[in-house]
Backbone:
């Protein structure tokens, strides 16, 4: 399907337009990954959307066609099987913006059991959100290879550093991160078997690093807001993903680093 989906339909009278009712729905993952894999039309390639992305239902049949209204695939037509569409394109209400506050405590060497006993000089902070608290790391004081292809330092070795204190907007997730970065936190000794949604990383808007900092789960931080307390990630994910700060659905909320 190469033509855009129309949300108005002309009637039989020349020059007149008769509005039709559009079905607005929101995406939900079919499993605990937090991602919904869809078929992008007309190419047939696979695409991913996170949860609570707004879509418009266009055509319902054996495959349900819908227009993605937000995110990386905004403006693309996609499809799901009829059964999956019934489960994953749902009526929902989003909240109006998550608020995270990270109070910096200081440096402390911590040993990570899931990382095989690795120790790092963590910049510890306490994150408050939705009436809950979680221990996080703002920096692990390590060398790392820059993986952001948009960065002029791509492929080069840099030393990690925390974000400056301030208020930052958190973007909606864009694409799944590789399971190799976080999957072992579920299966390794000392990990958290009930950990879900760990390939969902929320970019933090910060121009100097080209949005390379994220809110994510793990015991290693290259300057991200990293949820060190693995058992608290599921709750934080659930809070962030159901929020959108703006009408365009670009941001889920803010994080204040103190």
Residues:
């Amino acid at each position: 399907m190469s033509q855009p989906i129309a949300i108005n339909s002309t009637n039989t009278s020349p020059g007149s337009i008769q509005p039709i009712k559009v079905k607005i729905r929101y995406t939900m993952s079919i499993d605990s990954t937090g991602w919904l894999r869809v078929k992008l039309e007309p190419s047939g390639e696979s695409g991913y959307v996170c949860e609570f992305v707004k879509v418009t239902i266009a055509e319902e049949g054996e495959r349900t066609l819908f227009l993605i209204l937000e995110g990386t695939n905004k403006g693309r037509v996609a499809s799901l099987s009829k059964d999956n569409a019934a489960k994953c394109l749902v009526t929902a209400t989003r909240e109006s913006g998550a608020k995270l506050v990270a109070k910096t405590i200081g440096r402390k060497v911590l040993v990570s059991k899931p990382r095989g006993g690795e120790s790092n000089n963590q910049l510890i902070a306490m994150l408050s959100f939705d009436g809950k608290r979680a221990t996080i790391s703002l920096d692990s004081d390590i060398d790392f290879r820059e993986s952001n292809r948009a960065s002029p330092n791509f492929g080069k070795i840099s030393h990690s550093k925390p974000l400056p204190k301030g208020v930052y907007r958190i973007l909606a997730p864009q694409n799944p991160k590789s399971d190799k970065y976080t999957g072992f936190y579920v299966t390794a000794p000392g990990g958290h078997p009930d950990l879900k949604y760990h390939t969902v990383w929320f970019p933090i808007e910060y121009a100097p690093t080209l949005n390379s900092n994220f809110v994510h789960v793990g015991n290693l931080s290259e300057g991200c807001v990293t949820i060190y307390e693995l058992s608290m990630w599921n709750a934080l994910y659930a809070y962030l993903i159901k929020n959108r700060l703006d009408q365009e659905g670009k941001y889920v909320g803010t994080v204040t680093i103190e």
